[in-house]
Amino acid sequence: MAIETRNKIDSSFNMASMSDLVFLLLIFFMLTSTLVAPNAIKLLLPSSNSKTMAKQSLSVYINKNRDFFIGDKPVAASQLGTRLYSKIKPDAQATIVLRADKSVPVQDIVTVIDAINQINTEHHTKHKMILATSPRK
Asked: For residue 52, what is the domain's CATH number?
């Protein structure tokens, strides 16, 4: 009389849990990649001890050659106000982050501040500007 086992060993591999894991990893990397905002323009930011975090609507860059950029597109200083307004028009309380190289004259920073203030007075908006800095070591 032969003894038979009740439980048969199944040699097939269930891929359902593996596909769940792959989809979870895919979602994780898609979400974390949207949080990273790389600087396309090389700048040496001034250092500071203060830490101000705000929702960034738009970034304005001024490099060491005193060229102005909105996002990654170059813009002339005379066109700064109109180009800024076309980008932030839908949001009445946008926050503009100014990323200026530490060698840039203060007058260029004041040019951006004046453009934002002019937009605020002409269109009755409350746009703000934050100067980006690097942490002090």
From this structure: 3.30.420.270
What range does the domain containing 67 cover? 47-135
Asked if the structure places residue 7 within a domain, the reply is no
- Residue-wise pLDDT tens digits, 44-54: 777 777 776 66
Q: Is the pTM of this model over 0.70?
A: no
Polymer length in residues for the chain: 137
